[in-house]
Amino acid sequence: AAMSRKGRKLLVDSLTRSAKHFTKSEVECLIKLFDTLVAKASSQFAGAGFDRTVFRDTLYNAFGMTDDVVLDRVFNTFDRDNTGCITVEEWVEGLAVLLRGTLEEKMKYCFAIYDLNGDGYISKEEMFQMLKHSLLIQPADEEPDEGVKDLVEIALKKMASTYLFVPFLLQDYDHDGKLSFTDFEKAVRDENLLLEAFGPCLPDIK
Amino acid sequence: IFSKASISLEDSESSSETDEDEQPVRRQEGSTDLSAEYWGIQKLAKYVKGGDPTATLIALCSMRDFNLSEETCQLAIKDTGCLEVLINLLDTEEIKCQTGSLKILKEISQNILIRHAIADLGGLEIMVKILDSPDNNLKCLAAETIANVARFKRARKTVRKHGGIKRLVELLESISVGSSYQAKDTETVRCAALALWSCSKSTKNKKAIRKAGGIPLLARWLKCSHANILIPIVGTLQECASEPSYRLAIRTEGMIENLVKNLSSEHEELQMHCASAIFKCAEDEEIRDLVRKHEGLQPLSALLDKSENKQLLAAVTGAIWKCAISRENVLKFQEYKTVETLVTLLTDQPEEVLINVIGALGECCQEEENRGTIRRSGGIAPMVTLLTATNPALLVNVNKAVGGCAMEPENMAIIDSLDGVRLLWSLLKNPNPDVQASAAWALCPCVENAKNSGEMVRSFVGGLELIVNLLKSKDKEVLTSVCAAIANIAKDQENLAVMTDHGVVPLLSKLANTNNNKLRRHLAEAIAHCCMWGSNRVAFGEAKAVAPLARYLKSKDPLVHRATAQALYQLSEDPNNCVIMHENGVVKLLLAMVGSTDDTLQEAAAGCIANIRRLALATEKAKYG
Q1: Which residues of chain B have a Cβ shorter than 8 Å from any chain A Cβ?
Q2: DSSP codes, B60-127
Q3: What is the tens place of the pLDDT at every residue in B528-549?
Q4: In angstroms, rounded to a whole number, what is the distance separating the alpha carbons of residues B2 and B189?
Q5: How far is A127 from chain B (nearest CA, A)?
């Protein structure tokens, strides 16, 4: 969008503050990128932002993220006001977490991705959804879904039971077959590898 | 008196720990009841094998909830085929999966069977590659796991063959010591040092570390103050200190100062490794001096009070022993009353401590004052008791110490009353030549200083025959020491007669053709003393001992000259020997020695020449009337 120089400067300043993890020059670059993407996009939003499709392509090209389901969720996380359009603020602040977020910020982000219905819990069904394609080799005599269900149980035991370190006892802290953010947070603090437990949603820094 | 290191340094390993090179055997077979752990781990293994990285990670993290330090779990991972899967994961480029796998491998590689299995499955090569990873955490895990696996020889070789040593040394370089660095950087150094420590037990790896430029880095990190980095660094240095090139570097790079400083650390493990390093290095005189100059002798002496920690005590007593080889250090130890403390450690201590304690006392006996101190502290009796030990290394040291003490007549009386001389004598029968030789050396002062020495020696049934027969030994040190002993014993006429009956003359003569100066000296002394009975002088001549003796005069060693001159003087009482000496150009050689400042040599040389001349004159007269 065409903006006056002063307006642009104000924007850079304000975004640098709110995004917290980028320098001013980095923010400028991101804004430039944003403008490019908007120009490329269809003019559905009259230059205020870009849509889901452009977003998905960008993240794929930039970070190699391929999972459609995940990309969808990421878009929703970025699109805080649920307009279906990513504004420049949403863009810069979203990237700040994605690329440079602290553990706390990333945990919140990942949890939001995995909490498919946004009710503040990751339920067994949601886990099943996310893991159902994760088993590549299934033994012939088993129901295809049995393995996934089992894996879901294992994940639940692991993450909801971190208080007690007792394997094989179903110690779902909430006793209701779902993970609250507190459960998730504790599990990830104990074992950082579980941050993306239900699927990669952060860029791979290689 | 000789001194040999009591640690036998094998060709390829320097560690005194038992090495686990034979394929380990599983302990309990037979229980057909597979544990709950087995089924649980098998289930998780299924997801690791058959899942994508997401599923794999969930399974791997779950696996860590099992008690991985328990053998049942460790073996379950191996038996379910999960170990192969874990190692295969290492070979992927998925950092998270590699991390998850290594976290497990690090734990279970504490188990000897697992270690061997990991090596057999090619896990080490992959871990070495991971040392190049950009992910710091992964590097640390790989290094720590290598540290665990490299506890046996073949593994250490594998690490080296795949460039692991070089990479580990490079990891030590990541940051500089003094600058402000973060915890994660020191973590890399700590883990790399642990791996190097394990690997350094192999001789070839010690060389490889040096070639990769490891020594200045070890020196650099020696100056840091983190105990958890210092321990593996000093551990590595201590392991490598068996190599002269490392000892040189330890000397020249100022490492002794740091080692001494850390003797006062509050971490006993660190103290122990520092003392061990000093133990190994103090073979070198310069290092012994450096330890004294950096005031290391006092903390060493003070550490003798920590007698409950036996490993520490063994290291400290070892360091004291080797440092005591230098006289100035012995004098310093006297200030700290070290001898008195050492005497208290002669009883109720494990063997590895005793060997060093008594080694130290043996060195301290160089100083006359200490011989008295040992007696006054009640040290003689426990020493004599130790003469009944079976460990050869211990016996060698005990013999030296007893011999040292025996130089004081007052001590000798006690030794004799406790039957010490008989015990020493029976050690001449010990199959180990080092024990035999050290016993013979110790007998010299005993025979010299005992009251009624001749009678005492005769009282040992078969003793004289025994010692004369030792002249048939193939070991140079045994021969030398036995000659020295015989020289002393032969001062008693009766005993000399008995030895002659046992064939001492031909046996001594057979040894005459030697270039070894130490042997020459004591052999000549023995011959000189053995001449004083019956027709031994003639017998030596007939046994062709004279000509070789004449050659001894060409040596550069003044002690050899003195002993040889004495022998030749005695032999020259027999005219036939004079002829041989004359033919062998003895006169010219002895003439040069007549002007010596050594009185004994002077007299013997002069006396010998006089005898030869007298005979020549008499021969002339007989010829020409």
Answers
A1: 36, 40, 43-44, 46-47, 49-55, 57-62, 64-66, 93, 96, 99-100, 134
A2: HHHHTTS-TTSHHHHHHHHHTTHHHHHHHHHTSS-HHHHHHHHHHHHHHTTSHHHHHHHHHTTHHHHH
A3: 999 999 899 999 999 999 999 9
A4: 43
A5: 11
- In chain B, residues with a C-beta closer than 8 Å to the C-beta of A139 are 46
Domain count, chain B: 1
Structure tokens at A101: 């977020």
Query: Range of A65's domain?
Result: 5-101
Give me the pLDDT at residue B284, please.
92
- Chain-chain contact of A154 with B54 (C-beta, under 8 angstroms): no
* Residue linked to tokens 């990513």: A86
A168: which chain B residues are within 8 Å (Cβ-Cβ)?
A: 36, 40
Query: Dihedral, CA atoms, B255, B257, B263, B267, nearest 10 degrees?
Result: -60
Is B563 part of any domain? yes
Where among A101, A134, A167 does a domain terminate? A101
**Which of B57, B65, B93 lies nearest to residue A165, judging by beta carbons?**
B65
User: How high is the pLDDT of residue B34?
Assistant: 65
3-state secondary structure of A98: helix
Give domain status of residue B592, yes or no. yes
Q: What is the mean pLDDT of residues A55-64?
A: 84
Separation between Cα atoms, residue B128 and residue B166, nearest integer Å: 10
Amino acid identity, position B397: N
Of A68, A101, A134, the position where a domain reaches its end is: A101
CB B147 within 8 A of CB B195: yes
Cβ contact, residue pair A155, B36, below 8 Å:
no
What is the number of alpha carbons within 13 Å of residue B532 lying toward its C-beta? 17
CATH of the domain at B477: 1.25.10.10
CB B395 within 8 A of CB B435: yes
Please return the burial class of B214, using the count of CB atoms within 10 Å of its CB with bins 0-12, 13-18 and 19+. Answer: buried
Length of chain B: 625
Q: Where does B203-295 have alpha helices with state H?
A: 203-211, 214-221, 227-240, 244-252, 255-262, 268-281, 285-293
**Count of CB pairs separated by less than 8 Å, A with B:** 72
Interatomic CA distance for residues B105 and B114, integer angstroms: 9
Distance CA B526, CA B544 (A): 16
Cα B495 to Cα B474: distance, rounded to the nearest angstrom: 25
Residue B457 pLDDT > 70 = yes
Judge whether B345 and B353 are in contact, CB under 8 Å.
Answer: yes
A185-194, B109-118, B227-236: segment of lowest average pLDDT: A185-194
Residue B441: what are its φ and ψ, rounded to 5°? -60, -45
**Exposed, middle or buried by CB within 10 Å (0-12, 13-18, 19+), for B128?**
buried
Furthest CA-CA distance within chain A: 68
For residue B266, the SS3 value is coil
Q: Is the Cβ–Cβ distance between B214 and B172 less than 8 Å?
A: yes
**Closest Cβ opposite residue B65 in set A167, A199, A206:** A167
B88–chain A nearest CA distance, Å = 16
Residues of B in contact with A134 (CB under 8 A): 51-52, 54-55
Copy the structure tokens of residue B194.
């642990």
SS3 state of residue B202? strand
Q: Among positive and negative, which fits the CA dihedral A96, A99, A100, A104?
A: positive
DSSP for A24-68 reads HHHHHHHHHHHHHHHHHS-GGGTTS-B-HHHHHHHHHHHH----H
CA angle B340, B344, B347 (to 5 degrees): 150
* Average pLDDT of chain B, as a whole number: 91
* CATH number, residue A163: 1.10.238.10
CA atoms within 13 A on the CB side of A103: 12
Q: Is residue A27 part of a domain?
A: yes
Q: Do B586 and B568 contact (CB within 8 A), yes or no?
A: yes
The two tokens of residue B170 are 């490079």
